[in-house]
Amino acid sequence: MNILVTLNENYLPPLKVLINSLVQNNPEEAFSIYLLHSTISEEKLSELHHYVEEKGHHFFPIRIPPDLFKDAPILRHYTSEMYYRLTAHLFLPAHLDRILYLDPDIVCINPAAAFYYSDFEGHFFIACEHEHSAKKARLINKMRLRTPNAKGYFNTGVLLMNLELIRQHVKVEEIFQFIEENKLKLLLPDQDVFNALFWNKIKPAESYRYNYDARFFERAALIKKQDLESIKKHTVFIHYCGKDKPWHPNYKYALGTFYQKYCE
Fold it and tell me: Model-level pTM greater than 0.90?
């Protein structure tokens, strides 16, 4: 399995937790971890390389020019590295036909093969919409991004990428042009760009299984839609969205237990 991550040095500790969770729950898989970054030191990269190789897998760091997205907006806790997934096809090896992008604030708690080997059915990406949070703003997002026929507003934390088709059809100039023309309107910067440009090239997947927003669990449990056993059995990726993270000492959400399990 090819795994893509894009981050800075601050996210190396949770990245190790993500890798640990992938390895533990996919024992039959051989992983190649591709890291796109601009500023991580050689010492830290060496440590991460040893960590991955010690588990029997492969690590490939790729340094990106730090000024690639110098004019793109950065908001709140977002960093410029979030944009790298949009142009990853320019830097990844040409022999890769698919890769799974994962945010570093994710853990894998069940086998991921069924999702990883999904049929793209001619789409560039497979992604999930966080229906509980996106539903109310769906009409506004369609108007804001000028995508009236979009199937939803998709979260970019879990992206299965059809590199073969992306290389053929995605022009990086169009990405930069859209950012330049709309940078004052971008609310969730890279996610807005992704949804605006690729709205008709995204195959939807079930968020409950493949991109579960940890913040939603308490509300779902309250209305008896989900419980911990159901999450343990059916969910593949838990995503710790938002500014509250499970490595923070005051993290309050119940699904932080899964992060702690793979952290330990």
Answer: yes
